[in-house]
Design brief:
By secondary structure, the protein is mostly helical. The protein is globular, with a radius of gyration of 23 Å. The protein is built from 19 helices and no strands. The N terminus and C terminus are likely disordered. Helix 13 crosses helix 14.
Length: 492
């Protein structure tokens, strides 16, 4: 058998054992990485002193925040369609040190975010099963829930993707029903209510930001997507529309049909809205949907966190063990590492986790916007299958409003958040030279000596396929320069 035939067999075998993500599973994963449905947005009504600021927020924040971040992600994820996502973007623009820091901050933020979901799942269940309000049942339930969801991630990303599609349909359908049957009860003037004396700006901006961020997360598993240059832009567009509608329809229905005080709008209040609009059956359906939505949020977040570690390992930034895959094609050690972090962080309060992860996420996003502009200047000829149709000044103006929002969210953080986030930043700065020293001393084996193998030439559309047989003649400049820099200059 010739060399070409051997490469073909390797690719065909890999495709069968590691199926790629297609459009609808990717939309569902992005939806769950960003949103998961309207569960948790109730607090925006309370913190906003009424419906008006909440509705305006979910109308205009996507324009100044979600759409710019999605556009940046679409261009860079299609330009660098490998696992690791923003770690690769930052490393190419500013060097491997900052790429590692970006990866560490974003991974830590993601694991903190994921620690919320098993807790929220039990919080919904305890209304029907009060035993889960006791630590004697709560702790084993969190561990068991985390273990079972981790196993689903281990079995394959395509399973996670299609599970996310099913969970999204189940989670959103009761709100579509609620929106329809609420129409006769709507009083539009109630949407204009606001009491500025009751507005809590820190809570309001944190709620808006948390419910509309993480558009870039899916880029960490770009190497697992079928034909990413076409799939990513479509998936991001579909997810933006889905997220905005999933927030506005329930809010318009609930605030327009009920005369309740803004102080009553706390987490879980949509179940009471369902009871008023549709009856007890709709309340139970919404409670079940909210519980299941947390499972989808967990699965999507863990997948992104694990494949980010895998991508960093393939770049030589982490030991090679993080890139090891199971027989299902999933990064076993990376998944276990993320699951362990979730269990250890699940004891923290909701508001503490929310502020911490928002702060770390904000720092990382500022770096991503800077890298987006820098790459346009430093690599104007970089192959960009999807390109935001703006020149340098235009993309700078595109990034300015969300950057100002990021700075605002960070300025509103508490002193405790500054201290904890500062400790994480210092830890990342210390960890980087330790890993360099470990590689020099050969204390452990690192990846990155050879660039990762893209399994489909069609997926890259202009990016080269680096075969396991060592043929690197057609390797794309963006992939080659980054990987060689991060494996040699970074760790050697």
């Amino acid at each position: 058998m010739g060399e070409e035939g051997m490469v073909s067999d390797v690719k065909n075998t890999a495709r069968k054992s590691n199926p790629k993500l297609t459009l609808f599973p990717l939309i569902a994963l992005i939806f769950y990485e960003v949103s998961g449905g309207p569960f948790g947005i109730e607090d925006s009504v309370r913190a906003g002193g009424g419906p008006l600021l909440s509705l305006l927020g979910f109308l205009f924040f996507p324009i100044i925040w979600s759409i710019p971040e999605a556009l940046v992600t679409a261009e860079l994820a299609t330009s660098f369609p490998q696992n690791g996502g923003y770690v690769i973007w930052i490393s190419t623009a500013f060097g491997p040190f900052w790429g590692f820091q970006e990866g560490f901050w974003k991974w830590f933020s993601g694991v903190m975010d994921n620690a919320l979901y098993p807790v929220l799942f039990l919080d919904y269940l305890k209304h029907s099963l009060p035993i889960f309000d006791r630590m004697v049942a709560r702790i084993p339930a969190i561990i068991g829930l985390t273990a079972s969801l981790t196993y689903m991630n281990y079995r394959g990303l395509h399973i996670v993707g299609f599970s996310a599609v099913a969970l999204a349909i189940f989670s959103l359908f009761p709100f579509a029903v609620m929106g329809i049957i609420s129409i006769p009860k709507l009083r539009p003037k109630q949407w204009l209510v606001v009491d500025f004396k009751k507005v809590e700006w820190r809570g309001y901006f944190n709620s808006m930001f948390w419910n509309l961020n993480y558009w870039d997360k899916a880029s960490t598993l770009a190497g697992e997507v079928e034909n990413p240059s076409k799939t990513f832009p479509k998936a991001l567009l579909g997810a933006v529309v889905l997220v905005v509608l999933s927030y506005l329809i329930p809010l318009l229905a609930g605030t327009g049909a009920l005369r309740s005080s803004s102080s009553e709008w706390t987490d879980g209040y949509f179940a009471e809205v369902g009871l008023f609009i549709g009856g007890f059956w709709l309340k139970l359906w919404i409670q079940a949907a909210s519980a299941m939505s947390n499972l989808g949020l967990f699965e999507a977040e863990m997948s992104s966190d694990a494949y980010q570690l895998l991508g960093m390992s393939e770049l030589g930034m982490l030991p090679a063990i993080f890139a090891s895959r199971s027989k299902y094609g999933t990064p076993t050690i990376s998944i276990l590492c993320s699951a362990t972090g979730v269990i250890f962080l699940s004891w923290m309060s909701f508001q503490e986790i929310l502020e911490f992860l928002n702060f770390l996420y904000s720092i990382g996003m500022l770096l991503e916007f800077a890298a987006f502009i820098a790459l346009r200047l430093k690599k104007p000829d970089l192959h960009r299958p999807y390109k935001v149709p703006l020149q340098t000044f235009g993309i700078t103006m595109l990034c300015l409003p969300p950057a100002m929002l990021l700075v605002l969210v960070m300025c509103l953080a508490s002193l405790k958040t500054f201290l904890v986030s500062g400790a994480v930043i210092v830890l990342g700065s210390i960890l980087y030279p330790i890993l360099i020293h470990a590689k020099k001393r050969e204390w452990m084996r690192f990846g990155g000596e050879h660039p990762p193998l893209p399994l489909s030439g069609d997926d890259l559309e202009g990016h080269s396929v680096v075969s396991q047989l060592g043929d690197q003649e057609n390797e794309d400049e963006a992939s080659f320069n980054l990987l060689s820099d991060s494996s040699s200059a970074t760790m050697e």
